[in-house]
Write a structure and sequence with these properties.
Blueprint lengths: L1 H19 L1 E9 L8 E7 L5 E8 L4 E8 L3 E7 L2 E8 L2 E7 L4 E4 L2 H32 L4 H29 L5 H10 L9 H8 L3 H4 L2 H15 L1
Parallel strand pairs: 1-7
Antiparallel strand pairs: 1-4, 2-3, 2-5, 5-6, 7-8
Helix pairs in contact: 2-3, 3-4, 3-5
């Protein structure tokens, strides 16, 4: 009888574990010709020095795909080699990714739709910044004076920087309580070689709930940033 009970408990444990795991299917396409034959990776950043590969897919005729099981909902990164392409919410279900020279696009779950809206708005702002940089080069080449460059390039550039920071900060604050908040924080600021507390980061942390600040990566980021200040 004891043996039967143990077998039943083992079976229940296996079923519970299986029920917590969900299958994900990601179909992607890229119209960037140089991507053909190369490999996309889904990676999760556990710390600044350690990056774990979750899945990989070779691009063939402009298409790639990922599939597998996941027992958590987490924000991961789509990479090509060391190049960061875009963040993606990895969860059970179907998702579509589009990659092009000008922008990236996500379709699928509610969290990815929300993330896609942010990425689209960021892309528009970044495109305007690039346009101003090109305009600045032309003005310098044509011999424009400093005052003219300041009014036509520097002033609007500073406004775009503030607009971008406000957009990012608002997004993280609105998603304190789900994977998008800490996940995008990691994606955005994890690229810093040395962790620092910028005014933008301070604004995010000041109003953040303890659950957000206790996220393992964010807690470590704060610890390292404070250590840098103390030095």
């Amino acid at each position: 009888q004891t043996m039967i009970m143990r077998q039943c408990l083992l079976l229940i444990s296996i079923l519970c574990f299986a029920s917590c795991s969900q299958e994900y299917m990601i179909k992607g396409n890229s119209d960037v010709m140089t991507h053909d034959g190369k490999t996309f990776y889904l990676r999760e950043a556990y710390s600044q020095s350690s990056i774990a590969v979750i899945d990989s897919s070779r691009v063939e005729h402009g298409t790639f795909s990922f599939c597998g099981d996941t027992d958590t909902i987490q924000l991961v990164g789509l990479y090509m080699g060391a190049e960061r392409v875009m963040p993606v919410v990895l969860e059970g279900g179907n998702l579509t990714i589009e990659v092009s020279h000008m922008r990236t696009k996500l379709r699928g779950s509610k969290l990815n739709e929300r993330l896609n809206k942010l990425l689209s708005e960021r892309t528009r702002i970044l495109a305007k910044q690039d346009e101003l940089r090109r305009k600045c080069i032309v003005m310098l080449y044509n011999g424009s004076n400093e005052d003219e460059i300041y009014q036509k390039i520097t002033v609007p550039s500073l406004k775009l920087v503030k607009k971008l920071e406000a957009l990012e900060t608002k997004f993280i604050k609105e998603n304190y309580d789900n994977t998008l908040g800490p996940g995008f924080f990691i994606w955005l600021f994890g690229q810093y070689t040395v962790p620092v507390i910028t005014p933008q980061i301070k604004s995010i942390l000041d109003g953040a709930p303890e659950e957000f600040k206790c996220h393992p990566y964010i807690r470590e980021y704060i610890r390292q940033a404070k250590h840098t200040i103390d030095e």
